[in-house]
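Incident review: delayed structure delivery

Summary: a single-chain prediction request sat in the queue longer than the usual turnaround. Root cause was a stuck worker, restarted by the on-call engineer. No data loss occurred. The affected request and its eventual output are reproduced below so the record is complete for anyone auditing the incident later.

Affected input:
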Amino acid sequence: MNLKGVELFLGGESGLDPHSFSPLALAYIGDAVYEVLVRLTVMTDGNAPVSRLHKKARDMVNAKAQAEMYFRIREQLTEEEAAAFRRGRNAKSFTVPKNADLMDYRHATGLEAVFGYLYLKGDSARAAELFRMGTEL
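Output delivered after worker restart:
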């Protein structure tokens, strides 16, 4: 079993080139990175029943909320990050959640691709910075 993913999670050198992955693969890992950031943010409000934590997280992890975050941070994206976003937004996904607007879903996929790109690049600090900017009102 190859445990490079564990090394990457722990901050080790993964040897993974984010440019070698499809935009949907970037969005796949970016979705997980985004989810962890959301869950950590929700937990900073203190201990609460899991159902309440889940409800708060659910309100932040949906296509509409992610699309709104993109529009809050888009001016702060570097050229590389903007390119990752465009690749993710323009990727042809075969499914769209039934409760999501198509444009929101595409913007959310683009945002997730940015988070995936940054994570695989080894720049989790930048991902956290963008997340912080996107959640500030």
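Verification: The helical segments are 4-9, 23-43, 50-60, 63-73, 79-90, 102-121, 124-135.
Action items: add queue-age alerting; document worker restart procedure.
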